[in-house]
Amino acid sequence: MPPRQSLRSIPQLWLVSDLRTDAGLEPALRRLPRGAGLVFRHYHLPPAERAARFRQLARLCRHRGLVMVWAGTPAAARRVGADGVYGAAGQLTRGAAMLRLVTVHSLRELGAARRTRADLVLISPVFPTRTHPGAPTLGPLRWLTLARHSPVRPIALGGMTAARARRLPGHGWAAIDGLADHPRRTGKSPGNPKDS
């Protein structure tokens, strides 16, 4: 079981995977800077295929110096050899000996993250997303208010790009589309975190 990471080594840039980004995931991971992280969701795959895909990507992540987190239960994260686990506070075991990333959408959920002893909170959605079209968003000001109340380092998630991350200075960010490589797109790739 991997040891818990020190706060200084917890990534501030996270790529979040899903079905629509899977085909371009390897190129996107190669572009991430050393020390960034991947939240491996891939909920669309059956359990055995999901674990196999995780292990396949884990080889690349280890080689590139990336942290790899499993979305699900701590037990499943340990089974696949993940560096950590990602999910809602109620789903994560308090005191799990691995990095814990908790999803947060409100002050109440921040309290739950505190009780779970989260290492990092992903506060969302900051901006409109393709994952949840039409869902209400926090916007930068409400996101910053939640971030100020966070018991641990906050990460912005939801419609994030490098340009939008600059509107939340001093905070880390995570993205699906904003960091992913989509093979069908043309023009400038959104995968480079330095792109604006």
Report what the structure shows.
With 196 residues, the protein is of the alpha/beta class. The chain has a single domain, classed as Alpha-Beta Barrel (TIM Barrel). Helix content is 29%, strand content 18%. The protein has six helices and eight strands; from the N terminus they run E-H-E-H-E-H-E-E-H-E-H-E-H-E. The chain has helices at 25-31, 47-64, 74-80, 107-116, 139-149, 162-165, and strands at residues 13-16, 37-40, 67-71, 84-87, 99-104, 120-123, 153-157, 172-175. An eight-stranded parallel barrel has the order 1-2-3-4-5-6-7-8, surrounded by four helices. Helix 6 links the parallel strand 7 (153-157) and strand 8 (172-175). The longest helix is centred in the first third of the chain and has 18 residues, at 47-64. The radius of gyration is 16 Å and the shape is globular.
Shape: globular
Oligomer: single chain
Classify the secondary structure makeup into a structural class: alpha/beta
Task: Tell me the CATH architecture.
Answer: Alpha-Beta Barrel
Topology as a string of helices (H) and strands (E): EHEHEHEEHEHEHE
Tally of DSSP helical segments: 6
Instruction: State the name of the first-level CATH class.
Output: Alpha Beta
